[in-house]
Write a structure and sequence with these properties.
InterPro entries: DNA_repair_put (IPR023875), DUF4130 (IPR025404). The protein has 8 helices and 10 strands. It is α/β, with parallel strands linked by helices. The chain folds into 3 domains: 14-137, no CATH class; 147-213, 3-Layer(aba) Sandwich (YefM-like fold); 216-263. The strands form 3 sheets. It has a 5-stranded mixed beta sheet with strand order 6-7-8-9-10, covered by helices on one side. A 3-stranded parallel beta sheet has the order 4-2-5, with no helix packed on it. The protein has a two-stranded parallel ribbon with strand order 1-3. Helix 1 (26-38) packs across helix 4 and helix 2 (66-80) crosses helix 3. The radius of gyration is 22 Å and the shape is elongated.
Length: 264
Protein backbone atom coordinates (compact mmCIF):
# COMPACT_ATOMS: atom_id res chain seq x y z
CA UNK A 1 0.00 0.00 0.00
CA UNK A 2 3.03 2.23 -0.45
CA UNK A 3 2.09 5.73 -1.47
CA UNK A 4 -1.61 5.01 -1.05
CA UNK A 5 -4.16 6.31 1.42
CA UNK A 6 -4.64 4.00 4.45
CA UNK A 7 -8.19 3.41 3.26
CA UNK A 8 -8.95 3.85 -0.41
CA UNK A 9 -12.37 3.76 -2.13
CA UNK A 10 -13.54 0.22 -2.85
CA UNK A 11 -14.15 -0.47 -6.53
CA UNK A 12 -15.33 -4.08 -6.66
CA UNK A 13 -17.01 -4.35 -3.33
CA UNK A 14 -18.75 -7.67 -2.76
CA UNK A 15 -20.62 -9.48 -0.02
CA UNK A 16 -18.35 -12.11 1.46
CA UNK A 17 -19.42 -15.35 3.14
CA UNK A 18 -17.09 -14.74 6.05
CA UNK A 19 -17.38 -13.62 9.66
CA UNK A 20 -14.84 -11.23 11.18
CA UNK A 21 -13.85 -11.92 14.78
CA UNK A 22 -12.09 -9.14 16.70
CA UNK A 23 -11.31 -8.33 20.33
CA UNK A 24 -14.11 -5.77 20.82
CA UNK A 25 -11.84 -2.74 21.16
CA UNK A 26 -12.14 0.36 18.99
CA UNK A 27 -8.63 -0.25 17.64
CA UNK A 28 -9.64 -3.82 16.83
CA UNK A 29 -12.69 -2.54 14.96
CA UNK A 30 -10.52 -0.14 12.94
CA UNK A 31 -8.48 -3.18 11.88
CA UNK A 32 -11.73 -4.77 10.68
CA UNK A 33 -12.29 -1.65 8.59
CA UNK A 34 -8.78 -2.01 7.17
CA UNK A 35 -9.40 -5.66 6.27
CA UNK A 36 -12.76 -4.92 4.66
CA UNK A 37 -11.25 -2.26 2.42
CA UNK A 38 -8.11 -4.26 1.66
CA UNK A 39 -10.19 -7.24 0.52
CA UNK A 40 -12.98 -5.13 -1.05
CA UNK A 41 -15.47 -7.19 0.93
CA UNK A 42 -18.42 -6.77 3.26
CA UNK A 43 -18.36 -9.63 5.77
CA UNK A 44 -21.53 -11.50 6.67
CA UNK A 45 -21.11 -10.46 10.30
CA UNK A 46 -18.59 -8.95 12.71
CA UNK A 47 -18.36 -10.54 16.13
CA UNK A 48 -16.54 -10.09 19.39
CA UNK A 49 -15.68 -13.16 21.50
CA UNK A 50 -18.75 -12.44 23.68
CA UNK A 51 -21.05 -12.53 20.64
CA UNK A 52 -19.41 -15.48 18.90
CA UNK A 53 -21.80 -18.31 18.06
CA UNK A 54 -22.00 -21.37 15.85
CA UNK A 55 -21.92 -20.56 12.13
CA UNK A 56 -21.51 -22.33 8.79
CA UNK A 57 -19.44 -19.42 7.50
CA UNK A 58 -15.67 -19.39 7.90
CA UNK A 59 -14.45 -17.14 10.73
CA UNK A 60 -11.59 -14.76 10.03
CA UNK A 61 -9.79 -13.57 13.14
CA UNK A 62 -8.74 -9.93 12.81
CA UNK A 63 -5.75 -9.17 15.06
CA UNK A 64 -5.47 -5.73 16.60
CA UNK A 65 -2.64 -3.82 14.96
CA UNK A 66 -2.22 -0.35 16.44
CA UNK A 67 -0.30 0.95 13.43
CA UNK A 68 -3.13 -0.06 11.07
CA UNK A 69 -5.70 1.35 13.47
CA UNK A 70 -3.93 4.73 13.57
CA UNK A 71 -3.78 4.87 9.76
CA UNK A 72 -7.46 4.11 9.40
CA UNK A 73 -8.50 6.58 12.09
CA UNK A 74 -6.33 9.35 10.61
CA UNK A 75 -8.01 8.82 7.25
CA UNK A 76 -11.45 9.59 8.70
CA UNK A 77 -10.68 13.24 9.38
CA UNK A 78 -8.27 13.65 6.45
CA UNK A 79 -10.62 12.22 3.82
CA UNK A 80 -14.12 12.48 5.31
CA UNK A 81 -13.98 15.34 7.79
CA UNK A 82 -14.35 15.91 11.51
CA UNK A 83 -18.11 15.29 11.54
CA UNK A 84 -17.68 11.78 10.15
CA UNK A 85 -14.86 11.03 12.57
CA UNK A 86 -17.05 12.11 15.48
CA UNK A 87 -20.08 10.12 14.31
CA UNK A 88 -18.16 6.89 13.75
CA UNK A 89 -16.30 7.17 17.06
CA UNK A 90 -19.48 7.87 19.02
CA UNK A 91 -21.55 5.17 17.28
CA UNK A 92 -18.99 2.54 18.20
CA UNK A 93 -20.36 2.91 21.76
CA UNK A 94 -23.81 1.85 20.55
CA UNK A 95 -25.48 -1.27 21.87
CA UNK A 96 -26.75 -2.31 18.43
CA UNK A 97 -25.80 -5.92 17.70
CA UNK A 98 -24.71 -5.13 14.14
CA UNK A 99 -23.16 -1.72 14.77
CA UNK A 100 -19.79 -2.72 13.28
CA UNK A 101 -21.31 -3.85 10.00
CA UNK A 102 -23.51 -0.75 9.82
CA UNK A 103 -20.51 1.52 10.31
CA UNK A 104 -18.39 -0.33 7.76
CA UNK A 105 -21.16 -0.15 5.16
CA UNK A 106 -21.37 3.59 5.77
CA UNK A 107 -17.60 3.99 5.46
CA UNK A 108 -17.48 2.22 2.10
CA UNK A 109 -20.13 4.63 0.86
CA UNK A 110 -18.43 7.66 2.41
CA UNK A 111 -15.00 6.93 0.93
CA UNK A 112 -16.62 6.39 -2.45
CA UNK A 113 -18.72 9.59 -2.40
CA UNK A 114 -16.67 11.94 -0.24
CA UNK A 115 -17.09 14.09 2.88
CA UNK A 116 -20.65 15.15 2.10
CA UNK A 117 -21.93 11.61 2.60
CA UNK A 118 -22.48 12.22 6.31
CA UNK A 119 -25.07 14.88 5.41
CA UNK A 120 -27.24 12.37 3.51
CA UNK A 121 -29.30 11.41 6.53
CA UNK A 122 -32.02 9.78 4.46
CA UNK A 123 -29.67 7.37 2.69
CA UNK A 124 -30.25 3.74 3.85
CA UNK A 125 -26.55 3.33 4.70
CA UNK A 126 -26.34 6.67 6.55
CA UNK A 127 -29.63 6.77 8.47
CA UNK A 128 -28.73 3.91 10.90
CA UNK A 129 -25.71 5.86 12.16
CA UNK A 130 -27.94 8.75 13.18
CA UNK A 131 -30.39 6.33 14.78
CA UNK A 132 -27.54 4.90 16.87
CA UNK A 133 -26.40 8.41 17.81
CA UNK A 134 -29.93 9.39 18.77
CA UNK A 135 -30.20 6.35 21.05
CA UNK A 136 -26.84 7.19 22.65
CA UNK A 137 -27.68 10.87 23.13
CA UNK A 138 -31.08 9.98 24.65
CA UNK A 139 -29.57 7.58 27.16
CA UNK A 140 -26.79 9.98 28.12
CA UNK A 141 -29.35 12.71 28.77
CA UNK A 142 -31.53 10.39 30.87
CA UNK A 143 -28.71 8.94 32.93
CA UNK A 144 -27.28 12.36 33.72
CA UNK A 145 -30.46 12.87 35.71
CA UNK A 146 -31.37 9.34 36.79
CA UNK A 147 -28.12 8.03 38.31
CA UNK A 148 -28.67 7.49 42.05
CA UNK A 149 -25.62 7.29 44.30
CA UNK A 150 -25.29 5.55 47.67
CA UNK A 151 -22.47 6.24 50.10
CA UNK A 152 -20.18 3.33 50.97
CA UNK A 153 -17.31 4.06 53.38
CA UNK A 154 -16.78 7.58 52.11
CA UNK A 155 -17.24 6.72 48.41
CA UNK A 156 -20.36 7.28 46.33
CA UNK A 157 -21.47 4.27 44.29
CA UNK A 158 -24.18 3.80 41.67
CA UNK A 159 -25.38 1.00 39.41
CA UNK A 160 -26.85 1.54 35.95
CA UNK A 161 -28.23 -0.77 33.25
CA UNK A 162 -27.89 1.12 29.92
CA UNK A 163 -28.48 -0.40 26.50
CA UNK A 164 -25.44 1.46 25.13
CA UNK A 165 -21.93 1.73 26.51
CA UNK A 166 -22.27 5.30 27.76
CA UNK A 167 -19.76 5.49 30.63
CA UNK A 168 -17.22 7.36 28.45
CA UNK A 169 -19.94 9.89 27.63
CA UNK A 170 -21.00 10.30 31.28
CA UNK A 171 -17.46 10.82 32.55
CA UNK A 172 -17.20 14.55 31.87
CA UNK A 173 -20.61 15.33 33.37
CA UNK A 174 -20.16 13.54 36.67
CA UNK A 175 -16.51 14.47 37.15
CA UNK A 176 -17.50 18.13 36.78
CA UNK A 177 -20.57 17.66 38.98
CA UNK A 178 -18.68 16.01 41.86
CA UNK A 179 -15.09 17.25 41.54
CA UNK A 180 -14.31 16.85 45.25
CA UNK A 181 -16.00 13.47 45.73
CA UNK A 182 -14.73 9.95 45.17
CA UNK A 183 -17.29 7.92 43.24
CA UNK A 184 -17.86 4.98 40.96
CA UNK A 185 -20.60 4.18 38.47
CA UNK A 186 -20.98 0.50 37.66
CA UNK A 187 -22.46 -0.45 34.28
CA UNK A 188 -23.91 -3.88 35.06
CA UNK A 189 -24.80 -4.57 31.42
CA UNK A 190 -21.32 -4.02 29.96
CA UNK A 191 -19.51 -4.97 33.19
CA UNK A 192 -17.52 -1.77 33.31
CA UNK A 193 -16.80 0.89 35.92
CA UNK A 194 -16.21 4.63 35.82
CA UNK A 195 -14.01 5.32 38.85
CA UNK A 196 -13.24 8.86 39.99
CA UNK A 197 -10.79 9.01 42.88
CA UNK A 198 -8.35 11.67 44.05
CA UNK A 199 -9.36 13.94 41.14
CA UNK A 200 -8.51 11.26 38.56
CA UNK A 201 -11.02 9.36 36.41
CA UNK A 202 -10.53 5.98 34.79
CA UNK A 203 -12.68 3.49 32.92
CA UNK A 204 -12.21 -0.16 33.77
CA UNK A 205 -13.60 -3.35 32.28
CA UNK A 206 -14.23 -6.05 34.88
CA UNK A 207 -13.68 -9.77 34.53
CA UNK A 208 -16.41 -10.55 37.07
CA UNK A 209 -19.69 -8.83 38.04
CA UNK A 210 -19.41 -6.24 40.79
CA UNK A 211 -21.72 -6.22 43.80
CA UNK A 212 -21.86 -3.02 45.82
CA UNK A 213 -22.20 -3.44 49.60
CA UNK A 214 -25.65 -2.82 51.09
CA UNK A 215 -26.31 0.67 52.45
CA UNK A 216 -25.59 1.21 56.12
CA UNK A 217 -28.18 2.51 58.55
CA UNK A 218 -27.35 6.17 57.97
CA UNK A 219 -27.57 5.76 54.20
CA UNK A 220 -30.91 3.97 54.56
CA UNK A 221 -32.24 6.92 56.55
CA UNK A 222 -31.21 9.35 53.81
CA UNK A 223 -32.82 7.13 51.19
CA UNK A 224 -36.07 7.08 53.14
CA UNK A 225 -35.99 10.87 53.42
CA UNK A 226 -35.48 11.10 49.65
CA UNK A 227 -38.45 8.79 49.01
CA UNK A 228 -40.64 10.88 51.30
CA UNK A 229 -39.52 14.07 49.56
CA UNK A 230 -40.37 12.54 46.17
CA UNK A 231 -43.83 11.48 47.30
CA UNK A 232 -44.50 14.86 48.91
CA UNK A 233 -43.76 16.72 45.67
CA UNK A 234 -46.51 14.97 43.72
CA UNK A 235 -49.96 16.50 43.45
CA UNK A 236 -52.13 13.39 43.57
CA UNK A 237 -55.02 15.03 41.70
CA UNK A 238 -52.70 15.72 38.76
CA UNK A 239 -51.05 12.30 38.60
CA UNK A 240 -50.29 11.46 34.96
CA UNK A 241 -48.91 7.94 34.66
CA UNK A 242 -48.43 8.17 30.89
CA UNK A 243 -46.49 11.41 31.25
CA UNK A 244 -44.34 9.92 34.01
CA UNK A 245 -43.53 6.87 31.89
CA UNK A 246 -42.60 9.15 28.98
CA UNK A 247 -40.14 11.19 31.01
CA UNK A 248 -38.88 8.31 33.14
CA UNK A 249 -39.32 4.93 31.38
CA UNK A 250 -39.81 1.93 33.63
CA UNK A 251 -36.52 0.30 32.70
CA UNK A 252 -34.71 2.95 34.76
CA UNK A 253 -36.73 2.38 37.94
CA UNK A 254 -34.80 -0.56 39.38
CA UNK A 255 -31.74 1.66 39.92
CA UNK A 256 -33.63 4.69 41.29
CA UNK A 257 -34.09 5.02 45.04
CA UNK A 258 -37.50 6.67 44.80
CA UNK A 259 -38.91 4.32 42.15
CA UNK A 260 -37.67 0.78 42.84
CA UNK A 261 -40.35 0.07 45.48
CA UNK A 262 -43.04 0.49 42.83
CA UNK A 263 -41.65 -2.51 40.96
CA UNK A 264 -42.44 -4.85 43.86
Amino acid sequence: MSGQSPVSPARKLHDADVVYLYDGSFEGFLCCVFESFAQHELPFAIWTPERETATLYPVKEIPTDRAKARRVFASFRAKLGEETEFLVTRDFLSGWEDKELRIIRFLHLAFALGPGTVKRRGHPEVAPLYQMKQSLDWEVDKFQGFVRFQEHDGMLGAVIHPKNYILPLLRGHFCARFPEENFLIYDAVHQAVLLYQNHKAQLMELAEPLTLPPPDEKEQQFQELWRQFYKTLEIKARHNEKGRMTHCPKRFWADMTEMKEELK
